[in-house]
Amino acid sequence: MNKCPRVVITSGEPAGIGPDLCIQLAKTQQPCELLIIADPELLQQRADILGIAITLEQADLAQKSQVVPENVIRYIPVDLAVKSQAGNLDRRNAEYVLNTLQTALDGCLLNQFDAMVTAPVHKGIINEADSVFTGHTEFLADGAGIDKVVMMLATPSLRVALVTTHLPLIEVSPAITQQSLTQVIEIIQQSFTIQFGLKQPRIAVCGLNPHAGEGGHLGSEEIDVIIPVIERLKQQGLNVSGPWPADTVFVKEKLQDFDVILAMYHDQGLPVLKHQGFGQAVNVTLGLPFIRTSVDHGTALDLVGTGKATTTSLQAAIDMAVDMIKIR
C-alpha cells in the first residue's frame, strides 16, 4: 500500500472517556493519518484537565494524507450544542453525538476516509433526547442503506460474531430464521475473504438452546432452522460446522479449529470474549461498504478527566482498521 491510510475517529459521548482517549492517543505517532471528529473546544478543555499539552490542527481533506506528528490532534470540527462537563451527561448534546457519526459515515461513503473507528457513546442519553438509537451497528447500516450487517468482537486469539445483537432475550428465537442465519453466515464468509484475507474461514455455529437442543428435547430451533442452514451452506462449499453447544465450543482445544464463533445472541458469546480479553477487544461491523471498528467498552463516566482510562482497546481498533485497509 503506497499511501498513508486515512482513519477517522468519532470521539463519542462528550461527557465520557472518548475525548480523553483521543487526546492520550496523540502522545504516540499512529500508523495512519488519524482524524478526530469533535468540537475542538471540548478537546482543548479535556486536554487541560488531563494536563496533556496538545496542538490542534484542523484537517484539510483536499490534502494528501500524512501521519500526524506526536502531540498534534488533527480534527474535523462538529459543534457541541452546549458546553460539556466531564462525567455529566446532557441530553442536549445527543444531536452532537449523532452529527459526529453522520460526518464519519458520509466521509466513508464518499471514500474520503479509508476506515472509521468509533469511541463509545451513551445510548440511554441519546434515546432520552427523543432520538431512536439502538447502537452504532444499526445506525451505520441504516445510513449506508445496508439491509443486514454482522457485529463481531475480536481479540488477538478469539473472534465472536453475532446472529442477533441488541434484542431482549424473548425476541431472539423469532428473529433467527433460515433466511437471516444464512445471510449472516454469507456476510461473514465474504467479509473474512475481503477484509481478513481468509478465503475459506472456519465458521463454528453455536446452537441456541442448552446442549444445542439435545436432539429436540431442549428446543426445536436447531432442528428447524440451524442445522438445515449449515447443511445447505456446506454443500455450497463453505467451511461451516455445528450447531455446537455454547458451553463447550469455547474450550481452548476446540477454538484452535475455528477462525470465528457465531453466537446466536449478544450474551451467549460476548461474556466469554470479554472475560478473555476485555480492554484488548475490537468491535468490527461486517457487511458495511467500508471498514468500521470500535472499542469494547462504554463511556466510563467515573474515569473521565482522571487520566486512568487506558487507550488499549481504541489503539487495537485503530491497528485492526489499518491492517484491514492493507488487506483490502
Tell me briefly what this model is.
This protein is α/β, with parallel strands linked by helices and 328 residues long. It has eleven helices and twelve strands.
What secondary-structure arrangement, pairings included, does this model have?
Elements: E1 6-10, H1 18-25, E2 33-38, H2 40-50, E3 55-58, E4 72-77, H3 94-109, E5 115-118, H4 123-128, H5 136-143, E6 150-155, E7 158-162, H6 172-175, H7 178-195, E8 203-206, H8 221-235, E9 240-244, H9 252-255, E10 260-263, H10 266-277, E11 282-286, E12 291-294, H11 312-327
Parallel strand pairs: 1-2, 1-5, 2-4, 3-4, 5-12, 7-10, 8-9, 8-10
Antiparallel strand pairs: 6-7, 6-11, 11-12
Helix pairs in contact: 1-2, 7-8
